[in-house]
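Table 4 source record.
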Amino acid sequence: MFSNKEELIELANAQMPFGKYQGKLLLKIPEPYLLWLIGKEIANGKLAIQLHQIMEVKLNGLESILEPLIRTRY
């Protein structure tokens, strides 16, 4: 799933670029919305991959692995 630590850090800090949760960390978006986005295939490219990865993390209860990697925003 991940080839290096930098990818995990990037995923932990990835933000939603549009819609209801614009600017929110993907990790903090509710599962029903993630499922809706994935099902509608609205996102493509890197964002689509990250949405699938975040959903996998959430489904397996692994949010605590990514949370320490979140950078503080000022």
